[in-house]
């Protein structure tokens, strides 16, 4: 539409140019007529105007028809198409904006999705932490292992030290006990000669049984009790009294018997507890008990006499000028002194077979020096085994010679004992007896 208006104006401009040349009236009329025939455009005042007055003029134009190129007919179509295109573009733009929004959304989601690994980051961190902890634990484990090895080695050293110390302490205590018992015995000897009547009278008037003051069979013997039999003794006033068999005939009497074998009526294959408390029949075969033996030998310095008789009627004896059995804590360790007698020193046979200073072993408690097994179990008895024996008076009672393991009553220095008989039979004993007596009474 705007284009059409432009062409109308451009055709008017030459008309105004011609209006400027009106002054020449003759020519003007001719020209007007000419022009009117050629182009019917007239310019005239609207009303009669005075000179010098500004009057409105009007211009009449003939109907105008302009021939435009054919291609101009396409303009409307093009315009329509342009409109369509514009709409399409707008639509596209709109959809594009939606696309963009979607894309932005997607990007947002993408960003969020990209944040996923960030969410996993703490997991990675915790993984690393776990690895660190694992390595720390491994370090601690190896440290612990080292510490354990160190503790084991220290433990070994400590055991050695404690063993050495224990031996020292034991020896120290033993020597002190020996000194004390010697002093007590000498005092006791003096008292028995000067104060015994007073003591007896005192106890009698107090109504206390007289036997409470008898430490052992020797005390009874000193009081004129010279018949073999069972007497109640109190070797330590802090401990209970107990019965013991007293031999009042052998070698000036006054012997407290701690073990006896004579007929095989009592089984000597016994436990630690049995040997601790004692077992058997005091009138026949028995073991007095390690606790009692300890108390008896603790209260006085004692000597030990062993009497043996074989089935051939041979009777021999062994005398040890010291005999002490330690307490249970020290595993009833044996202490023996110098030997004298006729049966031979079987308790201290050699450097390798020595029962002195050995712990007590029973079939259920191995304290012997035989590393591969229990001597008590092998030889069916409780005894102060080395590894294992040159003497064992608690062995099995055989009523005659026997074959096999040396598990009978055994005294290694007995004539023909160690070699055995040519036919493989082993010596057995008819009687065995172990008894003790205060040293100061033995000349
Ligand atoms: Ca052993």
UniProtKB/TrEMBL annotation:
Annotated ranges, domain Fibrinogen C-terminal: 208-440
The keyword Disulfide bond is annotated on this UniProt entry: yes
GO BP annotation list: blood coagulation; negative regulation of defense response to virus; negative regulation of dendritic cell antigen processing and presentation; negative regulation of macrophage antigen processing and presentation; negative regulation of memory T cell differentiation; T cell activation via T cell receptor contact with antigen bound to MHC molecule on antigen presenting cell
Annotated Basic and acidic residues bias: 120-129
Pfam families, alphabetized: Fibrinogen_C
Primary location group: secreted
Source taxon at top rank: Eukaryota
InterPro entries per the UniProt record, alphabetical: FIB_ANG-like, Fibrinogen-like_C, Fibrinogen_a/b/g_C_1, Fibrinogen_a/b/g_C_dom, Fibrinogen_CS
Signal sequence coordinates: 1-21
Keyword Signal: yes
Region named Disordered: 107-129
Subcellular location: Secreted
Keyword terms, alphabetized: Disulfide bond, Glycoprotein, Secreted, Signal
A GO-annotated cellular component: extracellular space
Coiled coil: none
Protein name, entry field: Fibrinogen like 2
Annotated source species: Monodelphis domestica (Gray short-tailed opossum)
């Amino acid at each position: 539409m705007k284009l059409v208006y432009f062409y109308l104006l451009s055709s008017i401009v030459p008309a105004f140019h011609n209006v400027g040349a009106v002054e020449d009236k003759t020519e003007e009329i001719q020209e007007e007529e000419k022009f009117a025939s050629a182009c019917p455009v007239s310019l005239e005042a609207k009303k009669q105007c005075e000179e010098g007055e500004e009057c409105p003029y009007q211009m009449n134009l003939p109907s105008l028809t302009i021939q435009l190129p054919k291609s101009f007919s396409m303009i409307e179509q093009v315009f329509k198409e342009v409109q369509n295109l514009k709409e399409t573009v707008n639509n596209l733009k709109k959809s594009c904006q939606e696309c963009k929004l979607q894309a932005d959304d997607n990007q947002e989601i993408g960003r969020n999705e990209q944040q996923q690994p960030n969410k996993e980051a703490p997991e990675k961190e915790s993984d690393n932490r776990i690895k660190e902890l694992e390595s720390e634990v491994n370090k601690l484990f190896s440290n612990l292992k080292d510490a354990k090895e160190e503790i084991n080695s220290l433990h070994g050293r400590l055991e050695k030290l404690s063993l050495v110390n224990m031996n020292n302490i034991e020896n120290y205590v033993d020597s002190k006990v020996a000194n004390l018992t010697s002093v007590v015995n000498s005092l006791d000897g003096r008292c028995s000669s000067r104060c015994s009547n007073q003591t007896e009278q005192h106890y009698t008037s107090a109504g206390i049984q007289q036997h409470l003051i008898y430490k052992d069979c020797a005390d009874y013997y000193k009081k004129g009790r010279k018949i073999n039999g069972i007497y109640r003794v109190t070797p330590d006033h802090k401990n209970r009294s107990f019965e013991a068999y007293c031999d009042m005939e052998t070698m000036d009497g006054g012997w407290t018997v701690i073990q006896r074998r004579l007929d095989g009526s009592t089984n000597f294959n016994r436990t630690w507890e049995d040997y601790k408390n004692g077992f058997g029949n005091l009138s026949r075969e028995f073991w007095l008990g390690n606790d009692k033996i300890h108390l008896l030998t603790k209260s006085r310095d004692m000597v030990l006499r062993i009497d043996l008789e074989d089935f051939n009627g041979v009777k021999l004896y062994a005398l040890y000028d010291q005999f002490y059995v330690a307490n249970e804590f020290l595993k009833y360790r044996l202490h023996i002194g110098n030997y004298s007698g006729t049966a031979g020193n079987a308790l201290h046979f050699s450097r390798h077979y020595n029962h002195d200073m050995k712990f007590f072993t029973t079939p259920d408690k191995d304290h012997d020096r035989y590393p591969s097994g229990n001597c008590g179990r092998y030889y069916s008895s409780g005894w102060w085994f080395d590894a294992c024996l040159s003497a064992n008076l608690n062995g099995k009672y055989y009523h005659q010679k026997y074959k096999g393991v040396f598990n009978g009553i055994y005294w290694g220095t007995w004539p023909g004992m160690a070699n055995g008989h040519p036919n493989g039979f082993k010596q057995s004993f008819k009687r065995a007896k172990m008894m003790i007596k205060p040293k100061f009474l033995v000349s």
